[in-house]
UniProtKB/TrEMBL annotation:
This is Ferric reductase-like transmembrane domain-containing protein. Its main location: membrane. GO terms for biological process: defense response; superoxide anion generation. The chain crosses the membrane at residues 200-221, 241-262, 282-300, 320-340, 347-364. Keywords: FAD, Flavoprotein, Membrane, NADP, Oxidoreductase, Transmembrane, Transmembrane helix. Residues 391-505 form the FAD-binding FR-type domain. InterPro entries: EF-hand-dom_pair, EF_Hand_1_Ca_BS, EF_hand_dom, FAD-bd_8, FAD-bd_FR_type, Fe3_Rdtase_TM_dom, Fe_red_NAD-bd_6, FNR_nucleotide-bd. The keyword Membrane applies. Pfam families: EF-hand_7, EF-hand_8, FAD_binding_8, Ferric_reduct, NAD_binding_6.
Length: 674
């Protein structure tokens, strides 16, 4: 829950909490234990019970309006000392005026539950012991209030958390608290300047694209106007000219081998190749819009002709082929929308998109000059398919499979001798035992320096990936039942690739920030491995001087995906290249009173052992969401006046926030898109 904003006055807080009571209490205007626990958003009974007993003064098991407001007012207007006493009471379960070890243990276990953390009993005991070693100054085996206060004063974060009024737990969240906050712009002029600096290639390219569409539209419309055609025909022909142009363009971003080759040339510096897939989608939207306008204009023109409408539509080559074109296009367009493509119906999207062959055949029949526009792109696409067929005909075999937390599947595939890739590249994978036709893209998580195998990490998030996970889970269970000493899945797969990504540019950067959210860390696994190898072997192509790596996960177990890699980096990074930063976003902030004692104990343990209990790494895992504005500001100051490049793979909401901050601080920004 959020803490009271500095601008909030006590009276304003009281008024907000009156509204909170009314909302929680409902028609009977009273709150029971279950309602109270739900209102505080607590998972553990301990905190809910302790807070409830504080409000339930008459011990009836019900909090009425008078009790609620009286207690709230006392807490809002109380002194810092009284707030600390309240925090002390949370720890002192039996109310005897002293905190024993079992009470601290109970609190820590409750805090672990609140933060979805899971520590073994021996670690909980170690945390309690180290906390008592720090706080129990008179060695009495108990912590008095004065000792408790002394412990808090040694830790500013803990003091701030304890000094915050506990009624902040009850304050209603603002609607924007649940989403990333877009930072305020320093000025419109500054924002525009940084945006243009970071996106001038894309801006120039899109400008040329829009201008070309407008010129073609008006050129065709004007030509038919000179021939005496009515307005409907002029519009239809203008849209037709734009459709010819876009029909040629839409294939180009799908020439993946060609685009990967372009990345390695100087042309890459003048084309927005990283936005290829987004450009493909944009062209598709423009084409569908032009197709609708083209059809409506022809329909309106048909109404002006002396022949019946149906005859013009279904008994002419242009009319019938145009009708079928729009029908096929509508199916492809609808099934390509995000709710279907990303909503567990990828197979429907994939199957419908194969209608592009039908669309091109119909377009060649419908448009007399369409072939002139698409001849080169279609030939390029045909060559691409030949290369793809040649590269994918040889099977590859899964040599190892790992069932990782959060339904992530780690696969090691025997690397074909002809398969050469760069860090961050991705590959399409087909598993014939699941589908003979479906190909799905996954980032390669192994480093190119690994000669024998390549690895991919796949999160079960849809129909095909779910079936793949289930396939290997069943094989794993069968292997366990067989009692075999060696796990040999031997599942046949086909590989199509490799293909380049925006991360390919990372070795051109001097200072880089890598940000992965959840399974979005996969592209950086390969990159980090390769960076470590190049750093250790003094590679001449290694321009990087500092890499700030950030990995955000909601669950503790998710860090297990690549914790071995991070541990190796910590042990072998003799050149101080890496700055590792891990965030457990599903946990509460360190300044939350319900968790602050746990986190102080963990800090003490880390200071003594140099081991983070959440991951087992040396790097301390932070809790809550990162303060990106502060992080970027600090890194900008650290490396000024040099430019810093940000590479991100994760959800769109966070991407928007990071993109704004990159514009603010003049950082380069690249996001994985495929």
């Amino acid at each position: 829950m959020d803490t009271p904003r500095k601008m909030d006055t006590p009276r304003k807080i009281l008024e907000e909490l009156r509204q909170v009571f009314t909302k929680i209490a409902g028609k009977d205007q009273s709150i029971d234990r279950s309602e109270f626990k739900k209102a505080l958003g607590l998972k553990d009974e301990y905190f809910a019970e302790r807070m409830f007993s504080l409000f339930d003064n008459d011990r009836t098991g019900i909090i009425d309006s008078e009790e609620f407001l009286k207690t709230v007012e006392e807490l809002v207007f109380t002194t810092e000392e009284e707030k600390l006493k309240f925090a002390y009471q949370l720890h002192d379960i039996n109310g005897d005026g002293a905190i024993e070890k079992d009470e601290v243990s109970h609190l820590i276990v409750a805090s672990l539950n609140e933060n979805n953390l899971n520590f073994p009993p021996e670690q909980v005991t170690a945390l309690v012991d180290i906390l008592f070693l720090e706080a129990d100054t008179d060695k009495s085996g108990e912590i008095s209030f004065e000792e408790f206060k002394g412990l808090i004063e040694k830790h500013p974060d803990l003091l701030e958390a304890m000094a915050v009024s506990p009624v902040s737990w009850l304050k209603p969240r603002k609607p924007d608290d649940a989403i990333p906050v877009v930072p305020k712009k320093r000025s419109r002029k500054s924002y525009i300047k940084h945006y243009i600096q970071n996106n001038w290639i894309k801006i120039a390219f899109l400008s040329l694209y829009l201008i070309a569409n407008l010129l073609l539209f008006f050129w065709a419309a004007d030509r038919y106007a000179d021939q005496g055609a009515n307005l409907y025909v002029q519009i239809a022909r203008g849209c037709g000219a734009a459709l010819n142009f876009n029909g040629a363009l839409i294939l180009i971003p799908m020439l993946r081998h060609f685009m990967t080759w372009l990345r390695k040339t100087s042309i890459n510096n003048y084309l927005p190749i990283d936005e290829g897939i987004e450009f493909h989608k944009l062209v598709g939207q423009f084409m569908f819009g032009f197709a609708i306008a083209h059809t409506i204009a022809h329909f309106l023109n048909y109404t002006t002709l002396p022949v019946p409408f149906a005859q013009s539509l279904f008994e002419t080559k242009a009319g019938l082929s145009g009708f079928l074109l729009l029908l096929v296009f509508a199916i492809m367009w609808v099934t390509a929308q995000a709710p279907i493509r990303k909503g567990g119906k990828f197979a429907l999207f994939y199957t419908a998109h194969m209608l592009y062959v039908v669309w091109f055949v119909l377009a060649l029949v419908h448009g007399p000059v369409f072939w002139q526009w698409v001849l080169v792109p279609v030939l390029g696409f045909a060559i691409e398919q030949v290369i793809r067929a040649r590269n994918t005909k040889d099977p590859a075999y899964v040599v190892n499979a790992s069932l990782l937390p959060s339904k992530v599947l780690g696969l090691e595939i025997a690397r074909p001798q002809s398969f050469h890739y760069q860090p961050g590249d991705y590959v399409f994978v087909k598993c014939p035992s699941l589908s003979k036709y479906e190909w799905h893209p996954f980032t390669i998580s192994s480093a190119p320096e690994m000669q024998d195998v390549l690895s991919v990490h796949i999160r079960s998030a849809g129909s095909w990936t779910g079936k793949l996970y289930q396939l290997f889970r069943e094989q794993h269970e069968q292997w366990i039942r067989s009692g075999s000493s060696k796990y040999e899945p031997g599942v046949l797969v086909h590989l199509d690739g490799p293909y380049g990504t925006p991360s390919t540019h990372i070795f051109e950067s001097k200072y880089a920030i890598l940000i992965g959210a959840g399974i979005g860390v996969t592209p950086f696994a390969s990159i980090l491995k390769s960076m470590l190898y190049r750093s250790q072997h003094g590679s001449s192509g290694m321009r990087l001087q500092k890499v700030h790596f950030f990995w955000l996960n909601r669950e503790q177990k998710a860090f297990e995906w690549f914790v071995e890699l991070l541990s190796r980096i910590e042990a072998q990074d003799t050149n101080d290249l890496f700055d590792i930063n891990l965030y457990l976003t599903g946990a509460q902030q360190k300044s939350d009173m319900k968790s602050s004692t746990l986190f102080v104990a963990m800090d003490l343990m880390h200071a003594q052992t140099q081991v983070d209990l959440i991951t087992g790494l040396k790097s301390r895992t932070q809790t809550g969401r990162p303060d990106w504005d502060k992080i970027f500001r600090d890194i900008a100051q650290q490396h000024a006046p040099d430019k810093v490049d940000v590479y991100f793979c994760g959800p769109p909401g966070l991407s928007l926030q990071l993109r704004h901050l990159c514009h603010k601080y003049g950082f380069g920004y690249r996001k994985e898109n495929f």
